[in-house]
Amino acid sequence: MHLLVDAHEDLAWNILALGRDYTRSAAETRQHEKGTPNVEHNDNTMLGWPDYQRARTAVVFGTLAAVPLRRRLGEWDILVYADFEQAHRLYRAQLDAYLSLADRHADKFQLIQTVADLDEVVAPWADETETHQVGLVVLMEGADGVRTPAELEEWWGLGVRILGPAWAGTRYCGGTREPGPLTEAGRALLSGMAEIGFTLDLSHMDELAARQSLDSYPGAIIASHANAAVIIPEYEGNRHLPDAIIKGILERDGVIGVVPFCKFLNYGWKKGDARDGLTLETLVAHIDHICQMAGDASHVGLGSDFDGGFGLEAAPAEVDTIADLQKLDPILASRGYSDPDIAAILGGNWLRHLRETLPS
Ligand SMILES: [Zn+2]
């Protein structure tokens, strides 16, 4: 089995908001959560260390993510900020959750901040008979937790390596359902990020802000979790990537993580709808679209967003946990992808990108 890399999981959000213990298997956590009052997120996890082992998931990009009060999703949504000080505290608490996870369970998780860390985590996975540490690369989703660009150095020192300025709109740029350009503060943020060496995540950025960033950001650029807008049925909005943005990311040698979320595969899908109309074949269409545009299989990967805005109820029918993403292998093979190309798509492209962009 090829190694899997997942470029987007809101693990810290779940640890803090729902008390999830990711050293457990998804099945165990679901059992544990049965009957608990949190109906929105009850027993729907798709992640856990034993599942990472089954999936051969060597590296996960773990996010720091919080929601501005105006976009609160419900009573259960507790990582919500009314001002930037609050945002800062929530993002910092999530960072601490990763540090603590890696500290308390050093046999299971390790933070990846450098190429040396990456090699240390990934090399042992060549042995398929043993269990291994899962590497965590910290990704900040929505930059309202950064009070001023001067603070970037501190976040970098704490381990953040990838930064996406938007979720909703932030004071740095337009975001999902809140269109707008890079603001003056946004331009200052980007120049601070470039100076230090952050990778810029365009996911959730409004198209205008994404275009401006592609024109001005000199550092590495990715989209950790977004699909190809042009092939999503009934799609409207600014959450996914128009071909012009995909082209821009490809020109910058970036990688795009596709998302196996039913709603992101067909905008007509609603919560409560059956999952069986949407399959991993539908996800492969997004992989294929990006590969066709690139002319190679070197610029696409996975950004599942599992345990993010959705769980089991909104994943394609044949997907129960992250381990089922390995089912992409035979589907890609049947589409004519070679074994090295499949290895690249499932994880190799993200590993290459990390090797090229992390400090030594
Ligand atoms: Zn997101």
Structure at a glance:
This protein has 360 residues and is an alpha/beta fold. It has helices at residues 11-18, 26-33, 49-55, 84-104, 115-122, 152-158, 184-196, 207-216, 243-251, 262-265, 280-294, 328-334, 339-357, and strands spanning 4-9, 57-65, 67-68, 80-81, 109-111, 134-141, 160-164, 173-175, 178-182, 199-201, 221-222, 256-258, 300-302.
Walk me through what this model shows.
By secondary structure, the protein is of the alpha/beta class. It has a single domain (4-357), classed as TIM Barrel. Helix content is 38%, strand content 15%. It has helices at residues 11-18, 26-33, 49-55, 84-104, 115-122, 152-158, 184-196, 207-216, 243-251, 262-265, 280-294, 328-334, 339-357; strands at 4-9, 57-65, 67-68, 80-81, 109-111, 134-141, 160-164, 173-175, 178-182, 199-201, 221-222, 256-258, 300-302. Strands 1, 2, 5, 6, 7, 10 and 11 form a seven-stranded parallel β-sheet that branches. It has a two-stranded parallel sheet with strand order 3-4. The chain has a two-stranded antiparallel sheet with strand order 8-9. Helix 1 packs across helix 4, helix 8 runs parallel beside helix 9 and helix 12 crosses helix 13. It is globular and about 50 Å long.
